[in-house]
Amino acid sequence: MFFLTPKYLKQGRLYIKEAEKRLSYNRDRWTPEVISTFEGEIERLTDAVKSRDRVAAEISEKSLDKLCGQHCPLGPNAGIAENVEVVLVAIIVALGIRTYFLQPFTIPTSSMSPTLKGITGRATTEEPPNFLIRAYQTAAYGRSWYNVVAETDETVTDVSEEKRGGWRKFFTYTQVKTSAGNTYWVDESVRPVSDTFGIQPGRSYKKGDPIARGYIDTGDHVFVDKFSYHFRKPSRGEVFVFLTQHIDIPNYGISGPPPMKPSQFYIKRLGGLPGDELRIAAPELFHNGHRAEEPGFARVMTGHGENIRDGDVYHGYSNTIGRSFDAYGLHSPDATFRIPERNYFALGDNSYNSSDSRAWGTVPEKNLMGPGFFVYWPFLRDRESHFGLIK
């Protein structure tokens, strides 16, 4: 067993591995004599390790150490170069994993709630808690606290979204301009800021009034499995991620994506496979004349209701999305829609508040990215933790 191996044998094997690496790196630069000397010492140390000859192993290690010092001395910045090499290798490995296996994805909206939570917030009357509590809540809940106060009597004249943070402008902020010439910044995108704190042009504040006081919780961060669909067909009822590119929205006056340019990633439940005939009789979904049986659909169909906006519980499937969308013929309990070949039907679990295939059509097979696999952050939620496998 490895942990019972004598120290000199472990050290000898490490010397052999390192010497072989140095020899491989420098073989095209060294003379045949140096190469021969290195190979001879490596062979002697290998024999000593195999025969468990401690004395011979220690002698060969010293010889190899001396040869390395003579022919591949460390430069003045060797430590920095080695650290840079380690970092670069780590970056390459991470990019490879992201490209071919797992890609992180953040849930921005409530269309999959309560299976997956989007960005949510709450305005409060009390000021933010102390630093330690805020630090804990950021780590556990993905929560950010805000306390932006009006500096004088003023009225909001403009609310816009801006990129900040150096020349690349990585970070998204909401910029609030007022009639007094003041500009306030909230480090979050404009939609959750406006929805949470009610900031909009024309709203007036007295000096000392809170413009943005409360917190915003990040959406669930998930890993997407980019590997599975190379070896299996998508399964009805699973949560999946896709691109909105090449999805042609019909001219029904529907605002918002898709499509948007550049293409976006969307996450929904796979509501139907190529060739399926769909029907929705709220709160139930039907495939080919039969009530949907997969566990994901069954969970969504546990509730019922009309014009429901609350995403904290399941309410079943709806024939409408906020207002009456009539794009794909599922606008009544008797209407049916057959999914074209090599296309898939996307449905949000928060069916009454989800922009999905009922409005903008099916998802082409080439747009599929992979199934949602795992929620890795936040670890906690106020009501229920989503950390773990996605169902």
- Strand-residue fraction? 25-35%
> What overall geometry do the principal axes of the alpha carbons give?
extended
Helix content: 25-40%
The CATH class assignment of the largest domain is Mainly Beta
Number of DSSP strand runs: 19
Mean pLDDT value: 83
H and E order: HHHHEEHEEEEHEEEEEEEEHEEHEEE
Structural class: alpha+beta
CATH superfamily of the largest domain: Umud Fragment, subunit A
The count of helical stretches stands at 8
Biggest pleated sheet: 8 strands, antiparallel
CATH topology of the largest domain: Umud Fragment, subunit A
As for the number of domains, it is 3
What is the CATH architecture annotation of the largest domain? Ribbon
Distance between the termini: 41 Å
The radius of gyration is: 30 Å
Describe the protein's architecture and organization:
- A hairpin with a 2-residue loop joins strand 13 and strand 14 (290-291).
- Helix 1 (7-26) packs antiparallel against helix 2 (32-50), helix 1 (7-26) packs parallel to helix 3 and helix 2 runs antiparallel to helix 3.
- This protein has helices at 7-26, 32-50, 54-71, 78-100, 131-141, 190-197, 295-300, 357-360; strands at 102-106, 120-123, 143-149, 154-164, 171-178, 183-186, 204-205, 210-217, 221-225, 239-243, 265-272, 277-281, 284-287, 290-291, 337-338, 343-347, 363-364, 368-377, 388-389.
- It folds into three domains: 2-71, Up-down Bundle (Substrate Binding Domain Of Dnak, Chain:A, Domain 2), CATH 1.20.1270; 120-217, no CATH class; 221-389, Umud Fragment, subunit A (Ribbon).
- Strands 1, 9, 10, 11, 16, 17, 18 and 19 form an eight-stranded antiparallel β-sheet that branches. It has a four-stranded antiparallel β-sheet with strand order 6-5-4-7, with helices on one face. It has a four-stranded antiparallel β-sheet with strand order 14-13-12-15, with no helix packed on it.
- The chain is built from eight helices and 19 strands.
- The protein is extended.
- The protein is of the alpha+beta class.
